[in-house]
């Protein structure tokens, strides 16, 4: 009888140990990557059928690494080849990396314009995406961007500054901390008058 009780306790402790390893130790490898170095990652291929994006980045020593990420179907249409994002990686193992979709980047040379946000529910069912339209040299572009922790209702139907890639204006990011109406003087006019 005592032996059966000890056997049950042993099985119970073993299951708790396995659960601990699964929930706390395994995810730590990604957490470790997130606390590492950052780099600029560039999307070089999009497989819309599998929803995989492929990106490359260089570590601080200049070594090139390639990785991929499977995206939810609502995000895959908001990504363009050539678009850049922040990548976090482990310094001792750069191949353990993660692209941060909430942190799009625009490389030099770049330009600024203004863009109008709208509710993306016509295109996506995700609450962390906002749709925006903007014009560059008379051509209208429409993009979607993740808004991170912000509430969708706080960012739709507003005018923001948009930063775009000069050599490919279809690559742009909405500067969510820069509502256009917050400026008494339009910084774009000041930039153009120089």
Strand content: over 45%
Number of helices: 4
Query: Order of strands across the biggest sheet?
Result: 3-2-1-4-5
Mean pLDDT: 76
Q: Which radius of gyration do the C-alpha atoms yield? A: 22 Å
Kindly state the number of beta strands.
10
Q: Unreliable runs, pLDDT <50, ≥5 residues?
A: 25-33, 182-194
Order of helices and strands: HHEEEHEEEEEEEH
Structure description:
With 194 residues, this protein is an alpha+beta fold. It has three domains: 1-35; 36-105, OB fold (Dihydrolipoamide Acetyltransferase, E2P); 110-181. It has helices at 2-25, 28-34, 73-76, 187-192, and strands at 37-47, 52-58, 64-70, 84-90, 93-105, 110-118, 129-136, 139-146, 159-165, 168-179. The strands form two sheets. A five-stranded antiparallel beta sheet has the order 3-2-1-4-5. The protein is elongated and about 85 Å long.
Structural features:
194 residues; alpha+beta; OB fold (Dihydrolipoamide Acetyltransferase, E2P); 3 domains; five-stranded antiparallel β-sheet; 4 helices; 21% helix; disordered C terminus
Task: Please give a quick description of this structure.
The protein has helices spanning 2-25, 28-34, 73-76, 187-192, and strands at residues 37-47, 52-58, 64-70, 84-90, 93-105, 110-118, 129-136, 139-146, 159-165, 168-179. With 194 residues, the protein is α+β, with helices and mostly antiparallel strands. It folds into 3 domains: 1-35; 36-105, OB fold (Dihydrolipoamide Acetyltransferase, E2P) (Beta Barrel), CATH 2.40.50; 110-181.
């Amino acid at each position: 009888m005592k032996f059966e009780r000890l056997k049950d306790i042993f099985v119970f402790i073993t299951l708790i140990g396995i659960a601990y390893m699964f929930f706390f130790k395994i995810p730590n490898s990604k957490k470790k990557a997130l606390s590492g170095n950052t780099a600029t990652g560039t999307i070089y291929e999009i497989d819309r059928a599998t929803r995989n994006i492929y990106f490359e980045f260089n570590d601080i020593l200049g070594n090139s690494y390639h990785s991929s990420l499977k995206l939810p179907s609502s995000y895959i249409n908001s990504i363009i080849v050539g678009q850049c994002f922040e990548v976090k990686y482990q310094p001792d193992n750069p191949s353990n990396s993660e692209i941060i979709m909430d942190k799009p980047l625009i490389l030099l040379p770049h330009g600024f314009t203004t863009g109008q946000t709208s509710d993306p529910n016509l295109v996506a069912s995700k609450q962390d995406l906002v749709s925006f339209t903007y014009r560059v040299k008379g051509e209208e572009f429409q993009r979607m961007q993740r808004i991170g922790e912000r509430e969708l209702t706080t960012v739709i139907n507003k005018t923001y500054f948009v930063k775009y890639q000069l050599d490919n204006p279809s690559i742009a990011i909405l500067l969510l901390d820069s509502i256009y109406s917050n400026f008494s003087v339009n910084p774009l006019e000041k930039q153009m008058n120089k």
